[in-house]
Structure formats: structure tokens, C-alpha cells
Design brief:
Layout: H1 20-27, H2 32-48, H3 52-65, H4 70-84, H5 88-99, H6 106-120, H7 124-135, H8 143-156, H9 160-171, H10 176-192, H11 196-209, H12 214-227, H13 231-242, H14 247-259
Helix pairs in contact: 1-2, 2-3, 2-4, 3-4, 4-5, 4-6, 5-6, 6-7, 6-8, 7-8, 8-9, 8-10, 9-10, 10-11, 10-12, 11-12, 12-13, 13-14
Length: about 270
């Protein structure tokens, strides 16, 4: 069987465009690359439909091929499935195998997942090793998140200088989520250092960035402005935080407004 991408001279067909009968044919066909690829795509399809037993069956078939790319990908997907169902030890085994595979696309992502799993169990020393491996990779979808989590972990352990070093790199990245979260955490560190001006600068950058951590930064801006007696602007930020669509932040904003009811008149 020729590769699916070479079947039609006028235009290659993307794997995502193949129907399941074509994928089944490829999975059972003589081309080992096509077979392994089809198995992983079938795994994604079933996983996306929440047909987890069938997804696992296809991932395990892909794993059994020993393919240098698709077998590690199957390990990573199996790890994610195990983690979501609460099987942390099994997830760790799959992530570790994928991270040690050496595949330049899969291994960094697996190292990131493994590092986060270990950090969640307070195994911080080993978590840093795997997160550092992910951060040192050339995988653009993985590096910014790894930089952020290295900074967050250092912050958790009160190593503020190391935290800032990692977080500044994440904040300068092109990844919206990692950059937003890193800026917010840099604002928190500035608050801890007593540098209110720098903290405000970071929190305003988060809001301007318009991404994931913006509601939290609105709340921090409001709290800092209240401390300085700048009540009108604090009230405006509290209203924005309450309306930002984050239930946790909205609850905290309403609590502050309840604590200072006269702000509603500002």
C-alpha cells in the first residue's frame, strides 16, 4: 500500500480527512508507518467521543508496533487517559516511558506532563528535572508552559530569584496562556517583595494582554488600590473582576464589595 499522503497525485489527503473505514484499512495494511499512524488517529477519534476503552485498544495496538513516533505518542495519550481517571501511578509510568523515548515531538510534552504529575505529589526535586528537560527542548508548544511551571514551583518553594528568572522567560513567550500566567505570578512576587509599583505594572500588563489570568490581576489591582486609598479606581476594577466570567474571582470581588459597601457609590 502506498502512503495515504501519496495516493492522489493532484492533492495529498490529510489523515484527519480520512473516514474510519479508510483508517481501518490502513491499520490492517502492509505499510508499518501507515498502520501505526492510523491506529493513533483511530485512538484520537475514539478518545474524542469519550469511547475510552476503544481508544485504549487502538493506542495499545499502536504501542505494539514499536514505531519510533507513533508508539511514544500512544504512551503519552495512555498517560493522559490514566491521569484523567485518577490512575496516577499508571499515568506516571506511561509519561516516563514517553519522556524517555527520545522522540523530539513527544518526549518534551511527556516530560512536562510527568513534571506536573510529580509536582502535584510534592516530589519537587524530580519534577524540576523533568520540567527543565521540557524547557530545554525545541518544542514550541511545550517550552513556555515548562518555563512557567518551573517559575511557579520555585515561587512555591520561596526561591524568588529563580522564580523570576523562569517567569520572565515565560512572560516573553508567544504562548498566550503561559505568558499571562507568568506575568500574573511576577506581579505576586513583586507584591511579596513590597514593590507595589512593579506589581501594578505586571498586573496591568496581564489585563492588557487580555488572557487567562486577567480576572485575577483585576482583583489584585483593586486590592492594591484600596490599600493606597484610591477607592474610585479600586471600585472600577472590582466591578470588572466581578463581570469577567471567572466564578472564583467574581465571588472574591463581591466579598470585597460587601466588606466595603460604600465602594458601590464610587
Amino acid at each position: 500500500m502506498r502512503r495515504w499522503g501519496q495516493r492522489r497525485k493532484h492533492r495529498p489527503r490529510a489523515w484527519a480527512d480520512l473516514d474510519e473505514q479508510e483508517l481501518w484499512a490502513a491499520a490492517d495494511g502492509p505499510d508499518p508507518h501507515d498502520a501505526a499512524h492510523a491506529m493513533t488517529v483511530l485512538g484520537y477519534r475514539h478518545e474524542g467521543r469519550d469511547e475510552l476503552a476503544e481508544a485504549e485498544r487502538w493506542y495499545r495496538r499502536a504501542l505494539a508496533t514499536g514505531h519510533p513516533v507513533h508508539a511514544p505518542m500512544a504512551m503519552l495519550r495512555l498517560g493522559g487517559m490514566c491521569e484523567r481517571r485518577g490512575s496516577q501511578d499508571e499515568a506516571e509510568q506511561w509519561f516516563r516511558r514517553a519522556a524517555e523515548s527520545g522522540d523530539p515531538e513527544v518526549a518534551p510534552s511527556a516530560a512536562l506532563h510527568l513534571g506536573l504529575l510529580l509536582e502535584g505529589r510534592d516530589e519537587d526535586e524530580e519534577a524540576v528535572r523533568w520540567l527543565s528537560r521540557a524547557a530545554g527542548s525545541a518544542q514550541p508548544g511545550t517550552v513556555p508552559s515548562a518555563l512557567f511551571w518551573l517559575g511557579s514551583l520555585a515561587h512555591k518553594n520561596d526561591d524568588l530569584d529563580t522564580a523570576e528568572r523562569w517567569l520572565l522567560q515565560a512572560a516573553d513567550s508567544a504562548a498566550p496562556s503561559a505568558a499571562s500566567k507568568a506575568m500574573h505570578e511576577l506581579g505576586l512576587i513583586a507584591d511579596e517583595r513590597g514593590n507595589e509599583e512593579e506589581a501594578e505594572r505586571w498586573h496591568r500588563r496581564v489585563v492588557e494582554h487580555g488572557q487567562f489570568a486577567a480576572p485575577d490581576s483585576m482583583l489584585r489591582l483593586a486590592a492594591n488600590l484600596l490599600k493606597r486609598g484610591e477607592r474610585a479606581e479600586a471600585a472600577a476594577w472590582l466591578r470588572r473582576a466581578a463581570d469577567a466570567g471567572n466564578p472564583r474571582v467574581a465571588k472574591a470581588a463581591h466579598a470585597l464589595l460587601a466588606e466595603f459597601p460604600d465602594l458601590l457609590d464610587e
